[in-house]
Amino acid sequence: MTAYDTENIFAKILRGEIPATRVYEDDETLAFMDIMPRTDGHLLVIPKTPCRNVLDATPEQLASVIATVQKLARAAKTAFDAGGVTIQQFNEAAGGQEVFHLHFHVLPRQDGVSMRPPGQMGDFDEIAAHAEKIRAALD
Ligand code: AMP
After folding, report:
1. Torsional sign, CA 107, 125, 116, 55
2. Which of 9, 18, 49, 64 has the most CB atoms lying inside 10 A of its own CB?
3. Among all residues, which ones are annotated catalytic?
4. For residue 107, what are the β-bridge partners?
5. Residue 61, domain member (yes or no)
6. What distance in angstroms lies between residue 35's CA and the mean position of ligand 1's atoms?
């Protein structure tokens, strides 16, 4: 398995070297908004400790991340009065992964509304407003 790259973009976010719209954090995990949101409220959950993806993560990393995914999925569903929530997660390039620090996508969904195509930069002010709605819906 390829070694963890400490210069990946999410490692830089964790070190505070580049900005992110943070929504929630605890000792083990961080949740922040995706800059290319495929739905309103699209966010990412990552462990604070290094691992590339599900394939090299420890059971403890997976357990803490999934607990935060559930917390944020519930908050995002409430914040957007969503009918449901899509959770996505990719492993290695062949599996669709582009950033090699374990992350889960949390995407609140509305009935009959498709996700936007990938790779489209979101509006910063709109993303910030969506983050605030999710923060307000957290327990
Ligand atoms: P993937 O590895 O395929 O799950 O895709 C990486 C995801 O990270 C994409 O949804 C990107 O929009 C998102 N992304 C990339 N750079 C940043 C960043 N600096 N802040 C927030 N999200 C990012």
Report:
1. negative
2. 64
3. 103
4. 86
5. yes
6. 7
